[in-house]
Fold this sequence. Notes:
It is a single chain. By secondary structure, the protein is of the alpha/beta class. The chain folds into two domains: 43-200, Nitrogenase molybdenum iron protein domain (Rossmann fold, 3-Layer(aba) Sandwich); 213-335, Nitrogenase molybdenum iron protein domain (Rossmann fold), CATH 3.40.50. It has helices at 7-24, 31-38, 66-74, 98-103, 114-119, 141-146, 172-187, 190-210, 238-246, 264-270, 285-294, 302-305, 314-317, 323-335; strands at 43-47, 50-54, 61-64, 81-85, 106-108, 124-129, 132-133, 150-153, 219-223, 231-233, 249-250, 259-261, 274-279, 309-313. The strands form four sheets. Strands 3, 4, 5, 6, 7 and 8 form a six-stranded parallel beta sheet that branches. Strands 11-9-13-14 form a four-stranded parallel beta sheet, sandwiched between helices. It has a two-stranded antiparallel sheet with strand order 1-2. The longest helix has 21 residues, at 190-210. Residues 1-38 have low confidence and may be disordered.
Amino acid sequence: MPRRLPRRLTLLTAAVTALALTAGCGAEVRQPERAASADGYPVTIDNCGQKVTYDRAPSRVVAYDIGIIETMFALGLRDRLAGYVLGKDHDPADSPWKEDFAKAHRLGADRPSKELVLEAKADFVYAGWNYGFREGSGLTPQDLEQVGVRSYVLTESCRNGVSERSRGIVPPLEALYTDLRNLGKIFGVSDKAEELVRRYQEQVASVEASTPKDRPRPKVFVYDSGTDKPFTTGRFAAAHEIITRAGGDHVFTDLRDSWVQVGWESVVQANPDIIIINDYGGQTPAEKQAFLESYPPLANVNAVKNKRFFTLPYAALVEGPRNPAAIGSFAEYLRGLPG
């Protein structure tokens, strides 16, 4: 039977052996990499068709636009914000996350800039094409990468190649769920992200299950703004899912874009039964409705003749955590219409 060595000698021998093995392997093992791996980093996600790798969870985030900011709040990431930028047309006091808005730092009421991001000492920017990122503005993911700031592009805003400015690559709710899951991985809160996705999926499924199947689906047009030409939504904007999941037919479902300008002739030809008014911009919903009712080409459109207008806030019509509730509220409105 071999003689047992003293415990201290055994530990010393093991340590020397481990050191020798490490040296023999060229000291390839680095402690920081082991710690990162244990924490789940680096992580690689697909963002607008590009594989992007993040070595650590961002800690100083600049977020732009209300749906994006509310997504951060819904994921419980207020403490990761260096601050947010939100246009003056948005009132955070109306948000379900108004307490988070009150505790977070508002960096400005205009579009973000690279200078603002650097002044905030940000290490991450969450925005989208035409939701903060613009070619030639100095604030694109590529511009930020050059100064060591990582970023993430809102999936609703992903360019799709249909035209120079067209956006959207997946159905709007899929875009929301994709961003929740990607952000969950990037920030190390995947459990919270999956919880939100399950809750929203169940919420939408409940609405669809309660939608009458034996009544015609009304045709719906979304009016954002514009007098000479209306600004509206295509199939890749959140409004498309709000309409179709609630039991309506979106008149511009064939437009492979998110937000887009069309002609009044196409609206008249579509003859919508209902007009959803986007509560946003320099006009109130009442002022927008008054214009629609007074605009001669629309006089014989069903929605105008029957005064069927429904208002939703901007934050519900762009990608964000208010989308599922908006589906429910529009479905309730449709159920209340005469058969």
